[in-house]
Write a structure and sequence with these properties.
Strand order of the largest sheet: 3-2-1-4-5-6
Order of helices and strands: EHEHEHEHEHEHHH
Distance between the termini: 21 Å
Number of helices: 8
Oligomer: single chain
Radius of gyration: 18 Å
Strand content: 5-15%
Structural class: alpha/beta
C-alpha cells in the first residue's frame, strides 16, 4: 500500500553551523577548499590532475584516506597547496568560512554532507554531477555542477567552473553566498527535528 503522501528529509547538518559567519570574499584567505575522504571515489586522482591548472589559487585539502601518500608526493611541486589531516568540527567550520570556493570531485555522492556544511558557511560549491550535488546545487545560484560522463571534459569543466566563480564581482559573489546560506538553513539539524516533530504531531491527530 502506497502512502497518501511521502517526503524525504535530509539527515541534517550540525547545529553549530547555525552560527556561521558570512565572510566577505576579500577577507577570505583560501581560494579552493576540499574536505573529505582521500580516495578515488572522492576524486583524488582528479584533484592531482587539476593541480597544474590551479597554481594561481591557494588550495587547502583536509581529510584522511588511502590516497594521502599520492597527494603528498603530488603537491611537492605546488607550494600553493596545503594538505591537512582530519579536522574537528570547529576547525572544519573555520575552513569553510575562509574558503572562496568549495570543490567536490566525487564519482558517487548520495547526499554530500560537506557541500551542505560549506553552503551553511556562505561558501559556493563547484562539484561533479552526482545525486548529492544535483540535489543541492543550482547552477549560478549556489554554485556550479559539472557533468562527469567524459573524464577529460569533466576536468576541463571543473577548471572553467572554478574560474567562472572566481571571476564574479563582489555583489554577484555575495548573492551566491546568501543563496547558499538560505538553502543550507533548511537542513540544519534543529530545523529537520522541528519538521519531524510536526509530522509526528500531525500523525497523532
Amino acid at each position: 500500500m502506497r502512502p497518501q503522501k511521502a517526503q524525504v528529509l535530509a539527515a541534517g547538518i550540525h547545529r553549530r553551523y547555525a552560527g556561521a559567519n558570512c565572510v566577505s570574499r576579500a577577507d577570505k584567505d583560501i581560494d579552493l577548499l576540499y574536505v573529505g575522504t582521500l580516495d578515488k571515489n572522492k576524486g583524488m586522482d582528479r584533484l592531482i590532475a587539476l593541480l597544474p591548472a590551479l597554481q594561481q589559487y591557494k588550495v587547502v585539502i583536509a581529510g584522511a584516506g588511502s590516497w594521502r601518500p599520492a597527494l603528498e608526493q603530488a603537491i611537492e611541486a605546488y607550494p600553493n597547496v596545503r594538505l591537512l589531516g582530519s579536522q574537528s568540527g570547529g576547525e572544519l567550520m573555520c575552513l569553510y568560512q575562509r574558503a572562496r570556493c568549495f570543490i567536490s570531485l566525487s564519482r558517487n555522492e548520495s547526499f554530500g554532507l560537506v557541500m551542505a556544511e560549506a553552503m551553511a558557511c556562505y561558501t559556493p560549491v563547484v562539484a561533479t554531477e552526482t545525486d548529492g550535488a544535483k540535489a543541492q546545487i543550482r547552477a549560478g545560484i549556489t554554485g556550479y555542477c559539472v557533468p562527469q560522463q567524459d573524464e577529460a571534459a569533466c576536468l576541463l569543466g571543473l577548471q572553467q567552473a572554478v574560474a567562472q566563480l572566481m571571476a564574479l564581482d563582489a555583489p554577484a559573489y555575495q548573492q551566491l553566498q546568501q543563496h547558499c546560506r538560505n538553502q543550507a538553513e533548511q537542513i540544519l539539524l534543529p530545523v529537520v527535528v522541528q519538521r519531524l516533530r510536526k509530522h509526528y504531531q500531525e500523525l497523532m491527530l
